[in-house]
Amino acid sequence: MGLWTILEGFLLLANALAILNEDRFLAPRGWSFSEFSAGRTKSFKGQLIGLIYASQYMRVPLILLNAICIVVKLVSG
């Protein structure tokens, strides 16, 4: 298991967080950003909600990273 495999794993995790739908998945479980108050940003749940929304905000760089990963896999085999 090398560095490239670890980076691919983090990329897959970021993709999984980016596709979570707030209305259908996050809000029914109480994980929506609107229910998230500023006082609870230091809790683990607050940090996780922030990570989910940060990954959803960074969708365009994720698309570029996925394209780079695909090209490297095609070239290297």
Q: How many separate domains?
A: 1
Mean pLDDT across the residues is 84
- The tally of beta strands, per DSSP, is 0
Helix content: 55-70%
Signal peptide: 1-18
Pfam families: Yos1 (PF08571)
Protein name: Immediate early response 3-interacting protein 1-like isoform X2
GO cellular component, one term: COPII-coated ER to Golgi transport vesicle
SSE topology:
Blueprint: H1 3-18, H2 22-26, H3 44-57, H4 59-76
Could you characterize what this model shows?
- This protein is mainly alpha-helical.
- The protein has one domain (2-76).
- It has helices at 3-18, 22-26, 44-57, 59-76.
- Helix 1 (3-18) crosses helix 3 and helix 1 (3-18) runs antiparallel to helix 4.
- The radius of gyration is 15 Å and the shape is elongated.
Which labels suit this protein?
69% helix, 77 residues, mainly alpha
Gist of the model:
By secondary structure, this protein is mostly helical.
